[in-house]
Each structure stands twice: as C-alpha cells, then as structure tokens.
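Re: weekly structure request thread

Next one in the queue (392 aa):
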Amino acid sequence: MPNNSPPKTAAWPAIFAIAVGVAALITAELLPVSLLTPMAQGLSISEGMAGQSVSVTAFVAIFASLFVTTATRGIDRRFVVMGFSVLLIASSLIVAVAPNYAWMLVGRVLLGLALGGFWAMAVSLAMRLVPASDVPKALSIVFGGVSVAMVASAPLGSFLGGLIGWRGVFIVAAAFGVICLIWQAITLPKMPPRGSGNFAAVVALLGRTGVCLPMLAIFAVFAGQFSVLTYLRPYFERVSGFGVEGVSFVLLIFGVANFVGTSLSSIALRHSLRITLAFAPLVLAGCAIGLATFGTIPFAVVALIAIYGFGFGFVPVAWSTWVTRELGDDAESAGGLQVAVIQLANTTGAGLGGYALDLGGPLAPILFGAALLALTSALVIAAVPRPISRVA
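Done, posted below.
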C-alpha cells in the first residue's frame, strides 16, 4: 500500500530544485519578449510573427497541463520532472540553431510541453516533499522562482542579446536547463505517482457553482497582461525611442517592481482578497492607457512600467489563493485547470496582440490589453462573493 502521508522532515534542496526548474522554464517562455526585434530580423519575419513564439508555447502548455497526470500516471514523478528539464534543453538548442521560422516553432512546442506539465504538477510535488506545517513556506519558495524569472528573463535576455545575439541567449537557456537537470537528479527523491490521473476530474471542476466566471476573470487578466508584456519592446523602440540599453533598463524596472509586488501581496490579501482581485487589474489597465498616452515621455514610461510591474505581482498570488480556498479539496486537478486557463489566456493575448501590432502599430496591443484588464475587474465584482474576502 502506498504511503500518502506527508514526510516527517522537509526536503528543502528538492523544493529549491522544483523552484529553479519552474524559474528556468518561465524564463525560457518569456525570452522572446526581450528578443522580439532581433529574432524577427534573424528569421526574416515580422515582429508579430516572432511574438507567436510565445503564443505557440502557451497553446501547447494548455494541453500539457490538462493531460500530464494522465500521460505520466505510471511514472515516478522524479523522472517526469527530469524529463521536463530535458525538453527545456532540447527546446532551447533547437531555437538557437533554427534556420527558419518553422524550426523555431518546433523548439517552442517542446518548451510548451515541459512548461505546462511542470507548472501543473509543481504545487502538488512541493506538498509531497515537506511536512504539512511547512507547505506554505515551500509554496512561497516555488512561487518565488516565478518572481525571479519575471525579474531576470526580460532584462537579462535583452542585455545578453546585445552581447552574444539572440541565438546565444537560447544557448545560455539550454545551459540553465542542464544545471536544473543535474540539481534534480541529485536532490529529488523517488515519488511514485498518486491517484488515477483522470482528465475528467479536471473538466468536472468547471461544473461547480461559482467556478466558470472566476476562471473567465483569470483568462481575461492574463490575456490582457500578455498582450501588453509581449509587445513592450516594439513600443519602447518605436514610441519611446529607447535603444537596447534603455529597453533592458526599463524591463529590469518592471521585473524588480513585479518581485516587490509579489513579496508584498500577502499584506493586501490579508485585508481583502476580493478587493485585491478587482483592484489590481484596474491599476494595470490604467497604466496601459497611460503608456498609450504618455509614451514619448521617458520618465512617465519608467514610472508607469514600475507601477504596472508592482501591480501585476499581486495577480498570480491572489488567484492562486482563491483556487486554494475554493477548490482545495481537489488541488491537483484545480492546479491543472488553472494552468490550462492561464496558458490559454497567454496564447490568446500574445496571438491577438501580435495581429494588433501588425495591423495597428505598437500602441494597438497595449490598448487591447487595457480593455481585457478592465474587463477583469468587472468579472471579479460579478463572480467573487464577499464572504471569502478575508485571508487568514
């Protein structure tokens, strides 16, 4: 009989291996954001088409997050996690040497498989590696990996791209994947699969009362965010007139502000989860409109990006808190559903934002994202009742 009880001691090196793995995958996912222009030039495509490298990854991640438990139900989770790192390495190397757009997309498809699968399983894996009393700390470390990726990926990608070219940046990403693989091989214990891995359980969550509208709100806020974030570089270059150094600096400001927002989000959540869920996207929408209005004033752009990054730091933590509270009785299925919705939102936001960029110029994806972010606030007010407003 398998032992499903939590361990008596915490495997902190393994927790950090999970966090670093998540950080590596999200960093690779977001690299095209800071490399959009040189990637487009190198592959002889439009910037909008280059942006689809983000949407393709997110699209594949949708299915990976929904089916990973079913597809790997007979495999030790230790080897599944290591397999995701192997996919990250292969993806980065393929993109680095891609002779054309099609090969670049092949590499991004492999990344989507790893990203969706790993991210959907990360929380449940962390809960198996520490005693119940240490779960909040373990999850904060895992989510900290996401924050670090948000801080590092865009500015580091832009900076390194100026030094070694965009292909060199993806070789660095592959090296990061090798480090993750070795770390995981050393620290992760055997973790036999648990449960039946039933895809129907994930879909069944949508049938619960009070779930569909909040999931639509999750979709809207992440789609709006990705429409804005994915196409910031063309905006900075064409509207604000920033060079490579300026783009790197502003993206660093965004990342640091996002990390600070994530770190401080628990304060707002203790006051009111509902207000945080509704107010944060409204702030983001205001910042996006501000960027469209004051894009030629460098100081205003930097200030708005800082506020935008800080505000978005609250969003993933707040919605993860809502999912844990409302769907905590089936955490693994709920995690898969949430990741699927977020990745669908990411691919929609990046995809439609790319078309908007090609058709309407660099302000179009910013304004499209602002509309979706404002819609999120309305959905939260309609969908999230007041009784869950306080977080212990």
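The mean pLDDT is 84. Residues 135-187 form the longest helix (53 residues).
Next request, please.
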